[in-house]
Write a structure and sequence with these properties.
Structural class: alpha/beta
Mean pLDDT: 96
Number of strands: 25
Largest sheet: 9 strands, mixed
Radius of gyration: 24 Å
Shape: globular
Low-confidence stretches: none
Helix content: 25-40%
Length: about 550
């Protein structure tokens, strides 16, 4: 007798092949049978899935739940969107290894780089570990979903070099970092991550430790993978078109045989040429692509708020949200804002985000993230004969987010669609658990399915089998998780049962549910009839069942 039998489902199995009709049976946490004749019977519970999609659980490889897993065993909002596996420890930041007494310094770095409230991290994390292995033991508890993590370069450098961590590393430093990385991988780290991105700064305005690490340092750390049969390297870098950067990346791929994934934009250049050349030799370099160009949301409650440039607003920013919204509608207040000289931020990116009215967009009701020029503050102001600041105040008073893309958005998402469809691209960059005041891209699995395969009108849609593959088997395989991501006998029973016609994102909203009252943007969804992890139903009709079948994944321990 099966534990669970899902009958008459429209199966999208994760392999990119066309959908098919089948019964799917589950026993002991794995898929026991997939029967296209729909003749299976005999189960403790049988579910009629006629009219519903059955997909593998989604695998999100770019998250920052490193602290949140200490207090949130449901790992939200990712688990609300059909995600059954996450990989943390991205972008070189994390909380182990750590020397006792310096925990606050790692918190400050995470808060600055990933916009996670430091007060929440201080209160919510039960410090007590030093090594990465001890950190893994601490978070090795039951969850709603499976979690895995990488060992972060920033923390390793901080541990080895102390106050020198912003300086060049010595040969001794490099050797110690290599050995720590090796031990972390042996203890179960899924990989190693590093940041070489100008936007990752500490609170003093310095780029994070390791940003300018030498090729020698990176190659020495790469030696940590010697003799191991698992581990992926994640790199975020500003220099992926530089020959010197690509040279050491190629050296690590060739010397270790391990996969590397690098965050990439919508354009194809030298990075892609290297990836294609390596792929032809059976080696793996996967440019990592998000659902849309990097963006932020600006709201009255969020981290970035254009009204804060105005003295009139600063005088009321201590008031409640409702009181501030009321003030933004008040004629006298609006007149002050329009006549005052703004106090511009020092950061040039922040200046652009808040003042380039042609590139600030009002989020549409469909949450498409694909605005046109007519949706910009400048476009709306011209049509309605208003000052752009009046449009901003109207929009923020109504609680509607303002959308700003970092770079690369040219009036539609065609470049993004085309790069996602490239053979070597891998889907990532959700940043689940991070950028709490400006982002809620943990919801992108729902967005990809609802918008890019069904609702998009401004360009070609993507096929359901392709998008499901990119969210499941493809991401899982990059991190060696070959036991999941496919609806087939013998695979882990991580599944989603979806009412595709009703699949819909809710508007982002600010929740004050982190430890110490910390805030974060969250986003719910409709259409998930059921999510299953390891054969146990974790969500039914959008409600958590109380089941915690998820666990810590240790690298090298999953098998097909």
């Amino acid at each position: 007798m099966y534990d669970l039998l899902i009958k008459n489902a429209t199966v999208i199995d994760g392999t990119s092949q066309p959908e098919f009709y089948a019964d799917v049976a589950i026993s002991n946490g794995t898929i026991g049978a997939v029967d296209p004749s729909c003749s299976l019977s005999g189960a403790k519970r049988t579910i009629d899935a006629d009219g519903l999609l059955l997909t593998p659980g989604f695998v999100d490889i770019h998250t920052h739940y490193d602290g949140q897993v200490c207090w949130d065993k449901h790992v939200t909002p990712s688990s609300w969107h059909g995600v059954t596996t996450v990989v943390m420890g991205n972008c070189g930041v994390g909380f182990a290894p750590v020397r006792p007494g310096t925990e606050g310094e790692l918190v400050a770095l995470m808060e600055s780089v990933e916009d996670i409230p430091g007060t929440a991290l201080h209160e919510g994390i039960p410090w007590g570990w030093e090594t990465f292995a001890e950190y893994l033991d601490t978070i090795d508890t039951p969850y709603t979903i499976d979690i895995g993590t990488q060992v972060p370069h920033v923390a390793i450098r901080h541990y080895v070099m102390g106050d020198r961590c912003y300086d060049d590393a010595t040969a001794t430093d490099m050797a110690q970092m290599r050995d720590i990385t090796h031990q972390a991988l042996k203890a179960g780290a899924l990989g190693f991550s590093t940041s070489r991105f100008y936007g990752h700064m500490d609170k003093n305005g310095h780029v994070v430790p390791g940003t300018h690490a030498s090729a020698e340092e990176m190659c020495t750390i790469g030696d940590a993978f010697a003799g191991l049969d698992h581990g992926t390297i994640e790199i975020i870098s500003d220099y992926l078109e530089d020959d010197e950067e690509l040279s050491w990346i190629e050296h690590i791929v060739r010397s270790t045989g391990r996969p590397i994934t690098t965050l990439a934009g919508a354009g194809k250049g030298k990075l892609w040429q290297l990836a294609e050349r390596l792929e032809a030799e059976g080696l793996t370099l996967r440019p990592q692509i998000g659902a849309r160009p990097a963006s932020i949301l600006m709201t009255l409650e969020g981290t970035i708020n254009p009204m804060r440039q105005h003295t009139a607003y600063r005088e009321i920013q201590h008031l409640t949200l409702a009181e501030r919204q009321h003030a933004l509608r008040d004629p006298a207040f609006r007149k002050r804002v329009l006549t005052e000289e703004p106090i511009l931020p020092r950061n040039r990116d922040a200046q652009r985000f808040m003042n380039d009215y042609a590139r600030i967009f009002v989020m549409d009701d469909a949450l498409s993230y694909e605005p046109s020029a007519a949706d910009s503050i400048a476009g709306i102001a011209a049509v309605e004969n208003l000052h752009p600041l009046e449009v901003i105040m109207d929009t923020m008073a109504a609680g509607i987010p303002l959308l700003v893309f970092f770079t690369g958005y040219k009036d539609d998402l065609e470049p993004q669609r085309k790069i996602i469809e490239e053979k070597l691209s891998v889907f990532g960059l959700s940043d689940g658990g991070a950028h709490c005041g400006v982002l809620v891209d943990a919801s992108v699995p729902t967005y990809m399915l609802a918008y890019f395969t069904r609702d998009r009108q401004r360009g070609p849609q993507m096929s359901l089998p392709f998008v499901v593959h990119k969210l499941t088997q493809d991401t899982a395989a990059l991190y060696g998780l070959h036991d999941r991501g496919v609806v087939a006998p013998g695979y882990k029973a991580d599944l989603n049962l979806i009412d595709y016609s009703k699949l819909k994102l809710h508007a982002p909203e600010m929740a004050y549910d982190l430890p110490a009252g910390g805030k974060r943007l969250v986003q719910r969804a409709d259409g998930y009839q059921m999510t299953i992890c390891g054969g146990e139903i974790t969500y039914e009709q959008g409600q958590h069942t109380g089941a915690l079948p998820g666990k810590l994944l240790r690298g090298g321990t999953t098998a097909p």
